[in-house]
Structures are given as C-alpha cells and as structure tokens.
Write a structure and sequence with these properties.
Elements: H1 7-21, H2 26-39, H3 45-65
Length: 66
C-alpha cells in the first residue's frame, strides 16, 4: 500500500516533534521556516529542490525495497 504525504506535512511533524519532545523554542522553528522561504527566492532554489527530491526518492526506494 502506498501512502502519499506532502513534504510540508512531514516537515511540520518534525517541527512539532522538535518543539514538544526536544524542547526547541517555537521562535527558532519560525526563524528556520522564514529562512527557507527566503532561500526559495534565491538562485539556490533549484539545487535545494532537486536535492530534496533526490533524498526523498532515495529514502522511498529504501522503504519500498524492504
């Protein structure tokens, strides 16, 4: 069975877990999110997107092979 989750949802779960379990301050999570939005407007955006897609594809392939 294949389940499709948006990357934003998965990252949101990691951020929520970091705030609740690790004690990371919410302000730090907000600053990191704003930094991501800022990077999406730069020349680095295509490299970040392709790297993210490659990482997700590699981890998905690992899970599907088991």
């Amino acid at each position: 069975m294949t389940v499709f989750l948006p990357l934003v949802f998965v990252l949101g779960l990691f951020a929520w877990g970091a705030v609740k379990c690790l004690g990371v301050h919410t302000l730090i999570v907000v600053v990191i999110a704003l930094f991501g939005f800022w990077l999406s407007r730069t020349f680095m955006a295509p490299a970040i997107e392709s790297g993210t897609r490659s990482g997700v594809d590699a981890s998905t392939a690992q899970w599907l092979d088991e």
